[in-house]
Design a protein that fits this description.
Blueprint: E1 9-10, E2 21-26, H1 33-37, E3 48-52, E4 56-58, E5 61-63, H2 77-91, E6 98-104, H3 106-117, E7 122-128, H4 140-146, E8 149-155, H5 163-176, E9 178-184, H6 193-206
Parallel strand pairs: 2-3, 2-6, 6-7, 7-8, 8-9
Antiparallel strand pairs: 1-3, 4-5
Helix pairs in contact: 2-3
């Protein structure tokens, strides 16, 4: 599995990227690289932003892992690992002073799986309306030792992420990260203005 590097949206031309902090945007299921990139004007200016396209064509857009035979909120870990490995292989080709992650929904699950793969690699991780993949991961023990900063935001009225996946994440995250958890009353499966303000403050502090 590989990322389509020609589909990546960048906030800066190539000559201005090397050595700067990098913020990677990971969109949700059935969406595309332009979705979260629309948030770029409201994000911190210091990092170069790269919005990547998920590798699987599905549901009129793109997916990090298929939902065709995956229970909601409980995908097979090996499929998420395949996508995470593709992102890490791409990151290995770049030069940056630090890298942070911002994912929504499936992309939020991807962000949490990426820090399990490389616990010390990411300066900050933002997981919005997402969940942690079930089961133990080889990187979990190291992750619990490193405890990188993670922002997890979700709405009380999210109809997409099952309660089981939310409860799993609520138990797992404080044990494996320096977690900032924000719950937004009445918010569905989306990003609110208050949440955007909170995640920007988090990124300014950590990224």
């Amino acid at each position: 599995m590989r990322l389509d590097e020609s589909a990546i949206l960048w906030s800066a031309p190539e000559r201005e990227r090397a050595g700067r902090p990098l913020l990677v945007l990971l969109h949700g299921y059935g969406s595309h690289e332009g979705d979260l990139f629309a948030m770029s004007p409201g994000l911190p200016l210091e990092p170069v932003i790269a919005s990547v396209r998920a590798p699987i064509a599905e549901s009129g857009g793109w997916a990090w892992f298929s939902r065709i035979d995956s229970p909601p909120g409980n995908p097979p870990a090996e499929r998420v690992d395949d996508a995470a490995s593709a992102v890490i292989s791409w990151l290995d080709t770049l030069e940056y002073s630090s890298v942070s992650l911002l994912g929504f929904s499936q992309g939020a699950a991807m962000a949490l799986q990426l820090i399990r793969h490389a616990p010390a690699r990411f300066a900050a991780t933002v997981s919005l309306s997402g969940f942690v993949v079930a089961g133990e991961h080889p990187g979990d023990a190291e992750l619990a030792r490193v405890r990188p900063p993670v922002f997890w935001g979700r709405g009380t009225d999210d109809p997409v992420i099952p309660n089981e996946a939310v409860d799993r994440t609520a138990r797992w995250l404080p044990e494996h990260a320096d977690a900032t958890i924000r719950i937004y009353e009445g918010l569905g499966h989306s990003i609110s203005t208050p949440e955007l303000g909170d995640l920007v403050s988090f990124l300014r502090e950590h990224a």
